[in-house]
Amino acid sequence: MKLTKGRLSVVLIIVFLLVDQISKILVKTNMTIGESIPVFGNWFQILFIENNGMAFGMHLGGEFGKFLLTFLRIVFSVFVIIFLRKLVKSPASSKGLVAGVSLVLVGAIGNIIDSLLYGVLFGVSTPSAVAEFLPDGGGYAPVFFGKVVDMLYFPIIDSTWPEWMPFVGGEDFVFFSPVFNIADSCITVGILYLIIFQWKNLSRFLK
C-alpha cells in the first residue's frame, strides 16, 4: 500500500497522539504531584507536574487566562487542520512538509484534550494522593479548565552559580529546567523541522 501524504499525516497524528495521551494517563493515574522516577541517572527523570496550559510549564494568569488559552489553542488547531488539508491536496507540497505540519497539529490537539477533558475525567492530583479516573464525586474542574500533564524532565546540569557571579551568585542553576510532555515535543520538533528543512517549500504556501 502506497504511503500517500494523506495517509502519512493520519498515521503520524494517530501514533503520536496515542503516545502522548497514554503517557499522560499512566502518569496521572499512577504518580503523585512532584513524584520523580529516575530514568537515566538524575539527568533524565519522569517528574509529574501539572500546569494551566502553555508549553514547557508557561501559563496565563487566572481562570480567564486559562479559558482564553484553551480557546486560542482550538482556533489555532482549526487553522492548522485547514492548512494541512490544503497541503495534502496540493501536488506542490512534499511529504516532509506534511509531516512537519502534522506534528505541530498533534502537539496542539494533545494539550487541548488535557484542557478540555482531564478536569472532568480525573480527580485531583496532590503530593500525597494519586488521581482517580472517573471519581464518584466528579472531576476536579469543568470543561475547558483541566490542567496539562507534564512529565519529561532533563536536568542535565544541576549545580550552583559561582559566588562571584553578580545577582545570581550561590543560587541554584539547572539546565534544562522546563518539564514538558510528548505534545510539547511534537510542536517543538515540528516547528524546528519546518524552519530548518522545509522553509522554502512552506513559504510558498504562506504567501
Q: How would you describe the overall organization of this protein?
A:
With 207 residues, the chain is α+β, with helices and mostly antiparallel strands. The protein has one domain (5-128, 139-206). It has helices at residues 5-28, 62-89, 95-121, 182-197, 199-206; strands spanning 36-40, 44-51, 148-153, 157-160, 172-175, 179-180. The strands form two sheets. It has a four-stranded antiparallel β-sheet. The chain has a two-stranded antiparallel sheet with strand order 4-5. The radius of gyration is 19 Å and the shape is globular.
Give the averaged pLDDT, no decimals. Answer: 90
Total individual domains: 1
Largest sheet: 4 strands, antiparallel
**From the alpha-carbon coordinates, what is the Rg to the nearest angstrom?**
19 Å
Spatial strand order of the main sheet:
1-2-3-6
Secondary-structure content class? alpha+beta
Q: How much helicity do the residues have?
A: 40-55%
The termini sit apart by 34 Å
Number of strands: 6
Order of helices and strands: HEEHHEEEEHH
The general outline is globular
Task: Provide a quick synopsis of the model.
Helices cover 50% and strands 14% of the residues. The protein has five helices and six strands; from the N terminus they run αββααββββαα.
Summarize this structure as a short list of keywords or feature phrases.
four-stranded antiparallel β-sheet; 6 strands; single chain; 5 helices; 207 residues; two-stranded antiparallel sheet
Describe the SSE topology.
Blueprint: H1 5-28, E1 36-40, E2 44-51, H2 62-89, H3 95-121, E3 148-153, E4 157-160, E5 172-175, E6 179-180, H4 182-197, H5 199-206
Antiparallel strand pairs: 1-2, 2-3, 3-6, 4-5
Helix pairs in contact: 1-3, 2-3, 3-4
